Amino acid sequence: MSKKLRRFSGIALLIMVIVLALPASVSAGGIIGSPNPVSAGPEEEVYPAVAYNSTRQEYLVVWFNDRPVVDDIYAQRLTRDGLKIGPVFCISTGAGQNKRYPDVAYNSKHDQYLVVWEDETVQGKGIRACRVSGSGEVLDESGFKIADHGYDNIFPKKPIVSYAYTSDRYMVVWAESWKNVALPNPNHFIKAQKVTETGALEDSPILVASAKHYIGEPDIAYNRHMNQYLVVWEDLRTLTETRIYGYQLNAGGFKVGSEIQITSGSVDCTNPAVASIPTSGGDIKFLVVYEHEYPANDHDIYGRFINEDGTLHTALFLFAFTTFDETSPAVTGNEVSQEYFVVWRENQGVTDNPIMGIQVSSLADSWGDLIELPCPAADNPAVSAGHLADFLIVWQDQPVSGTNMNIYSQLFGNRNYLPMIKR
User: Contact 208/247 with Cβ under 8 angstroms?
Assistant: First the structure.
């Protein structure tokens, strides 16, 4: 049986068992054009993130340059068709500092972005941020502090950010560990911080979760319908396998309802990502995707839908089920098409590591055709819903003849073009 037939057999089998409604077809999207190099510089360019500017109908892609001495945060604006707007520009740089793992969210009320990153100096790690105007102007040249680094061996890391339209606030979420053995338990945390459009920190940091055991790799999505967030993370509380948990927060940062256990079982579930479609016609408002390791060193990509009240929907999707190792899932939701788009990396060989993707209905009752973007060494995909029913996928990849990783993008959507006639 071919790779794709094996994969679809797994998807269909699990969905037919768990989803009561018969599957229908989502709007048939397709790959638009060819992959475009967002940045092809002479240094390692890795870990891209992307946000869509609905006011200007363009995207902002951010990443960091992985260098021996100083890692910096860079960005590139793209049109809604994935074409470059102006040159690459620097978000944050500085000698003696490593700036890594950026994320970005767009603020449609003020036509600005908030870029966040992990900032490392000789004192330790911290979280910093910078506002960027819709036109690409860096508004905070030195950035501003979200979380301290180095104090009492406290290490904040890997921030992510979401924007709440109703309350007009950013919410920055990160994992934090305390390495000083003299400190009392717990010593692992998921924390959050509200930030205004002026770059001011509002109120104190929010404690989302705390534990003596490891918790980390958080993600966040905003549900405008209830003006609430869902924060998810990986959690080793059983000490034998990692599971995915979540909590809803209201606009003020207070917990809503009970903690949500998203996965269970005897295998590791890791690296969660979450997206929301607040205008969905049903109770479902979130889709959480994650890596499911079974057997060892063979991850599959699963998805779990979450209802607005925080309960698990009956639909459990198996997006990728092959003998290959599928990792690094990402997901976004498009309100126009009422579809989620899930992407991941699939390790098929030494120089065969494509980015895979699939559309899924917001009602969890249908899915589209699997897409494959052939790549020799792709990794760390990110995706954003864009103009109308479009999606933009970004990732890092090293060409076969190249010597370092670069950043690429691919547009996916529903468009019909007339053939171009050369005269």
Answer: yes
* Whole-number Å distance between alpha carbons of 216 and 374: 31
- DSSP-derived 3-state class of residue 223: strand
**pLDDT attached to residue 416:** 53
Tokens read off for 325: 């190792």
Query: Residue 303 in contact with residue 358, Cβ under 8 Å?
Result: no
SS3 5: helix
3-state secondary structure at position 13: helix
Looking at residue 156, its amino acid is P
Q: How far apart are CA 316 and CA 10, in angstroms?
A: 12
Segments making up each domain of the chain, as ranges: 3-413
pLDDT at 182: 60
Q: Distance (Å, rounded) from C-alpha 294 to C-alpha 242? A: 12
Its CATH class, for the domain covering 3-413, is mainly beta
pLDDT: is 394 or 122 the higher one?
Answer: 394
Give residue 18's pLDDT. 38
State pLDDT tens for residues 61-74: 999 998 877 899 99
Give the separation between CA 361 and CA 271, rounded to whole angstroms.
22
Strand pairing report for 325-334 and 188-195: unpaired
Nearest of 232, 307, 299, 225 to residue 268 by alpha carbon: 299
pLDDT at 1: 34
DSSP calls for 299-341: EEEEEEEEETTSPEEEEEEEEE-SSSEEEEEEEEEETTTTEEE
Separation between Cα atoms, residue 274 and residue 288, nearest integer Å: 4
Q: Does residue 42 have a cis bond before it (omega within 30 degrees)?
A: no
Entry field: residues in the chain:
423
For residue 152, the 8-state DSSP code is G
- With the CA atoms of 193, 197, 198 and 200 taken in that order, what torsion angle do they form, in degrees rounded to the nearest 10? -10
Q: What is the DSSP string of 165-211?
A: TTTTEEEEEEEEEE--TTSPSP-EEEEEEEE-TTS-EEEEEEEEEEE
How far is Cα of residue 394 from the mean position of the Cα atoms in its chain?
A: 11
Q: What is the CA radius of gyration of the chain?
A: 20
Q: What percent of the chain has pLDDT over 90?
A: 77
Provide the whole-model pTM.
0.92
Contact 293, 267 (CB under 8 A): yes
Work out the angle at residue 351's Cα, subtended by the Cα atoms of residues 345 and 357, and round it to the nearest 5 degrees.
25
